[in-house]
Design goal:
Number of strands: 12
CATH class of one domain: Mainly Alpha
CATH topology of one domain: ABC transporter transmembrane region fold
Number of helices: 22
CATH architecture of one domain: Up-down Bundle
Radius of gyration: 36 Å
Low-confidence stretches: 1-24
Length: about 625
């Protein structure tokens, strides 16, 4: 398990239920939508082309419906011999179709058959244009979506690199990962599908309304009467849904976080027989997610049926009144048929939009969680004109006081110095503040009071990049990346040559076991080096630090994962590693700090003893107790 602030273990499986993170409802939908749309801004030309394709596609569909009016009237005249009432536009369309039939009619010698063939041909051309428009729209929208999501992921990952260590100490890895997976995927789905449906629906509504009003304004008004019912019903459901979709995303993040921690710590779970406890805790989180998903999906899914049934009522009323007008001679058969089609087309976009509401709300909730990370306060900016003078390794702490949270002080008035090339050791009980001192040296956290000076310059006057380039660390928790052994060692200095990598491995006494691997330095490591022993992984970690030319070295329990024999084997290598470097060593094995220039004994965040090994033994204080075993180390 990873350490939390102050060196304590982060709560993991069996340690209590993870609370779902994030709010229970959307905080600012308008702001979230605006930020989402900002990622589309660099595709303005493509968006214009998409809109143009949508308009063409909508117009082709409406034109085909509109042309049915004169066609149906023509057929009615042919069957009944009775002239149908048509508007000026309908007569114009009929005249155009009739003129086209002229040359063809001479060959077929059947006016009605010719008319039908012409109509089918015209419809085929119009629909072909619509199909091409739909294809181009889909291709362009795919480019826009993938490009926007790529930028969103890049921005999110870049922001994570700028966040302080404090953020990662307080947020489970799985919960952070869910921002990259579930949340971003929901945004992608909305941009590619829901946004397209929304815009297309609005264009279809507008176009349908225009064609409806030109067909019959009375029936158009009757259809419009139902719009407030659609709006009020949809708005009420949307307001309720948005709250549950935000909760659903937060609950999903909690489940992901718990799953990731449990899988990562599976050995610990099994060692302490916590399998059943882990199952029970996961069940609680899963149940919480199920309840929130049920509410979100329920309110999202009833939108479609409610809107659909309302549109059926609207359709029935419209057709009923249209039938009365037709009987009264105020409406032709063709006009009623076409208007019936328009009435369905008018409600179809509304239904389509309502069906997309679940995706939209999920995307808004996901986007809000992504932007929540992006809005986190980054590490404090580096000072202007930060020092870039070569660092020698003279380190001084003056009256340093620090707490991870204001209510609890971890370090109290710490003062010490380390001359260039000296080895300073920290010993003491767990939680005494040993690791915290090295965290402050690297500026993983900034101190509350006092000063930390390197070569007489306050660490705040160095840029973080420059400072950390000059401090090499070997941590208790090893981490190896997917890649070759050579690549993992080179992580200490990316411009290192192969010869320098081998030399660093020899310094850390890692060369011999590396050469016994199947492909030597080219052996590929996966799953954090699962095919290596814990000691071998730590040796690679030490080799990585050896490759660095940093004048300051921090060893945080660096040999805690190797056995006594391996520890003795690498002592000479460690001595070579520490030569001419200012070194800070944190160790529970006091035998590893005997040759330190100075040993600091910490308890409750204070230095209670200091001196070299012999002088501290003579004092017969806390260090004497720890070293001789008179009082065991906590």
């Amino acid at each position: 398990m990873g350490r939390g602030p102050g060196g304590g273990p982060r709560r993991g499986p069996g340690g209590g239920r993870h609370a779902p993170m994030g709010g229970s409802k959307l905080k600012d939908s308008k702001k979230t939508i605006k930020r989402m749309l900002s990622y589309l801004s660099e595709y303005k030309l493509r968006i214009v082309l998409v809109l143009l394709c949508m308009i063409i596609s909508t117009v082709t569909a409406l034109c085909c419906s509109y042309l049915l009016n004169p066609v149906i009237n023509k057929l009615a005249l042919y069957v009944t011999g009775k002239e149908q009432e048509m508007s000026a536009m309908e007569r114009f369309a009929d005249n155009v179709l009739t003129k086209i039939t002229g040359p063809i009619n001479a060959a077929i010698k059947s006016e009605m058959l010719t008319y039908i063939i012409v109509v089918v041909g015209v419809f085929a051309v119009i629909y072909l244009v619509g199909i091409i428009s739909n294809y181009l729209q889909s291709r362009l929208m795919l480019v826009i979506t993938q490009g926007s999501i790529e930028k969103l992921r890049n921005d999110l990952f870049s922001k994570l690199q700028k966040l302080p260590v404090r953020y990662f100490d307080s947020h489970p890895t799985g919960e952070v990962m869910s921002r990259f997976t579930n949340d971003v995927d929901n945004v992608e789905m909305m941009i590619n599908n829901s946004l397209t449906s929304l815009i297309s629906g609005l264009i279809t509504l507008t176009g349908t309304f225009v064609f409806m009003i030109t067909t019959n304004w009375v029936l158009t008004l009757i259809t419009i009467v139902f719009i407030p019912i659609f709006a009020l019903g949809g708005g009420a459901i949307a307001k309720i849904s948005s709250k549950y979709y935000s909760s659903q995303q937060a609950a999903l993040g909690a489940v992901n976080g718990y799953t990731e921690e449990t899988v990562t710590g599976q050995k610990v779970v099994k060692v302490f027989n916590h399998e059943q406890t882990a199952v029970e805790e996961f069940s609680l989180l899963n149940q919480d997610m199920r309840e929130k998903q049920f509410k979100a999906q329920f309110w999202g899914s009833i939108m479609g049926p409610i809107m659909g049934n309302t549109s059926h009522i609207s359709y029935g009323v419209t057709i009923g009144i249209g039938g009365i007008l037709m009987v009264a001679g105020k409406l032709s058969v063709g006009a009623l048929s076409v208007f019936a089609n328009y009435s369905k087309q008018f409600s179809m976009p509304i239904n389509m939009i309502s069906q997309q509401m679940s995706t939209i709300f999920s995307a808004l909730a996901g986007a809000e969680r992504v932007f929540e990370v992006m809005d986190q306060v980054p590490e404090t900016p580096d000072v202007v004109n930060a020092s870039t003078l070569p660092i020698n390794g003279e380190v001084v702490l003056k009256n340093v006081t620090f707490g991870y949270i204001p209510e609890k002080t971890v370090l109290k008035n710490i003062s010490l110095y380390a001359h260039q090339g000296q080895k300073i050791a920290f010993v003491g009980s767990t939680g005494a503040g040993k690791t915290t001192i090295t965290n402050l040296l690297n500026r993983f956290y900034d101190i509350s009071e006092g000063e930390i000076l390197i070569d007489g310059i306050n660490v705040k006057n160095y840029s973080r990049d420059f400072l950390r380039q000059n401090i090499a660390m070997v941590l208790q928790d090893t981490h190896l990346f997917t890649g070759t052994v050579k690549d993992n060692i080179r992580y200490g200095r990316l411009d290192a040559t192969d010869e320098e990598i081998v030399a660093a491995a020899k310094t850390a006494s890692a060369h011999s076991f590396i050469m016994r691997l199947e492909n030597g330095y080219d052996t590929v490591l996966e799953s954090d080096g699962a095919n290596l022993s814990q000691g071998q992984r730590q040796l690679l970690n030490i080799a990585r630090a050896a490759l660095s030319n940093a004048p300051i070295l921090v060893l945080d329990e660096a040999t805690s994962s190797v056995d006594t024999r391996t520890e003795r084997h690498i002592e000479h290598g460690m001595d070579r590693l520490m030569k001419n470097r200012t070194t800070f060593v944190i160790a529970h094995r006091l035998s590893t700090v005997r040759n330190a220039n100075a040993i600091m004994v910490l308890e409750n965040g204070e230095i209670i003893e200091r001196g070299d090994h012999d002088s501290l033994l003579e004092q017969k204080g806390r260090y004497y107790e720890l070293y001789t075993g008179v009082k065991e180390l906590d």
